[in-house]
Specification:
It is built from six helices and nine strands; from the N terminus they run ααββαβαβαββαβββ. By secondary structure, it is α/β, with parallel strands linked by helices. It binds S-adenosyl-L-homocysteine.
């Protein structure tokens, strides 16, 4: 088994993952589909080998280039909120990062479109998802604050970096009845929001206080 990163040995064992899931449940995550997908998704392949032993702690970890893989609680929470509205087949993700959130979503919806601005992260995430034999994801290297117009509208849009204000373009690319889950605010006062579209009107629900890396305009 040497060299098989998916095998999951030692600190990356199934038991370690099960403990993480129990913790997410304790923290209030209720979506069983999301929990089951997270139970079987190997988070350690999305971080550097030196950090693999910490991959099942409920914490964000550095992935290089000043970015982080989101905390498992946040991944679970955003997934649960995104899918909480019923039918959600087509999802746009802004901020691929490590690709972990992408992999979780890809196992829960038909098609994921994921945008990242840092070439190295974009390439690494593609590789990790290929390793997991996940094929229903399209990746794009660009500034995601403009969304990804070509495939709009989306039933769900998830943004994993925080802008100060919600980009108008993302609202425009939301399908009728669609849901946008996005952190926004200033660096030390970000709030996770659910924005739901109903025809031409949008309603906002304020959720958890969070701490995300900033959404940066422009390609890298
Ligand atoms: N869900 C990812 C989170 C990574 S951190 C994970 O769990 O691994 C947020 C990511 O958003 C970073 O990779 C960062 O480069 C990216 N990002 C920031 N601004 C962006 C923009 N304007 N367009 C696309 N990606 C962006």
């Amino acid at each position: 088994m040497a060299g098989n990163k998916l095998a999951g040995i030692g600190m990356t064992s199934q038991r370690t993952r099960d403990r993480l899931i129990a913790r997410l449940r304790d923290e209030g995550i209720e979506d069983e589909r999301a929990l089951e997908v997270m139970r079987t998704t190997p988070r350690h392949i999305f971080v550097d080998e030196a950090l693999a032993s910490r991959a099942y702690e409920d914490t964000a970890l550095p992935i290089g280039y000043g970015q982080t893989i989101s905390q498992p609680y946040i991944v679970a929470r955003m997934t649960e909120v995104l899918l909480g509205g019923g039918q959600c087949n087509k999802v746009l993700e802004i901020g691929t990062g490590s690709g972990y959130q992408t992999a979780v979503l890809a196992q829960l919806v038909d098609q994921v479109y994921s945008v990242e601005r840092i070439p190295e992260l974009h390439a690494r995430a593609r590789k990790a998802l290929a390793e997991m034999h996940i094929r229903n994801v399209r990746f794009q290297l660009s500034d995601g604050s403009w969304g990804w117009k070509q495939f709009a509208p989306y039933d769900g849009i998830i943004v994993t970096a925080a802008p100060e204000q919600v980009p108008e373009e993302l609202l425009a690319q939301l399908a009728d009845g669609g849901r946008l889950v996005i952190p926004s605010g200033s660096a030390n006062a970000q709030r996770l929001r659910l924005i739901s579209r109903n025809g031409e009107s949008f309603s906002e629900t304020l959720l958890d206080w969070v701490s995300f890396v900033p959404l940066i305009k422009g390609e890298n």
